[in-house]
């Protein structure tokens, strides 16, 4: 059976806003039992996410979870306004 592959490109208003979303979302790996591979790529102000799996249900669940996370991330950025710095330096 051939793998199911879904690619998404999410545009952000700025490169920094895309970087924040990238940093927040990529730290949560898919559970191993889902058998889903998720790959993030940042290109200027676009966040590209690719999901690969062999079972449609698992890909659908991964996409649903991702959509919930990206919506929360975007709404949080709207709530707090645009980033005030070009780098995250809180470590």
Give a nutshell description of this structure.
The protein is an alpha+beta fold. The protein has 2 helices and 3 strands; from the N terminus they run E-H-E-E-H.
Could you describe the 3D structure shown?
It is found in: Cytoplasm; Nucleus. Keywords: Cytoplasm, Nucleus, tRNA processing. It comes from Polypedilum vanderplanki. It is a single chain. The protein is of the alpha+beta class. The protein has a single domain, classed as 2-Layer Sandwich (TATA-Binding Protein), CATH 3.30.310. The protein has two helices and three strands, in the order βαββα. Strand 2 (36-43) and strand 3 form a beta hairpin. The protein is elongated.
Question: Any descriptors?
Answer:
CTAG/Pcc1; TATA-Binding Protein; alpha+beta; 2 helices; 91 residues; cytoplasm; 3-stranded antiparallel β-sheet
Biggest beta sheet summary: 3 strands, antiparallel
**Shape summary:** elongated
Instruction: Write down the domain tally.
Output: 1
The structure class reads alpha+beta
Order of helices and strands: EHEEH
The CATH class: Alpha Beta
Uncertain parts: none
* Number of discrete helical segments: 2
User: In what range is the share of β-strand residues?
Assistant: 25-35%
Widest beta sheet: strand line-up:
1-3-2
CATH topology: TATA-Binding Protein
Corresponding CATH architecture = 2-Layer Sandwich
Q: What's the total number of strands?
A: 3
- Please compute the radius of gyration using only Cα atoms: 14 Å
Q: What share of the residues lie within helices?
A: 25-40%
- Rounded to the nearest angstrom, the distance between the terminal CA atoms is 45 Å
- The CATH superfamily is Alpha-D-phosphohexomutase, C-terminal domain
Mean pLDDT: 88
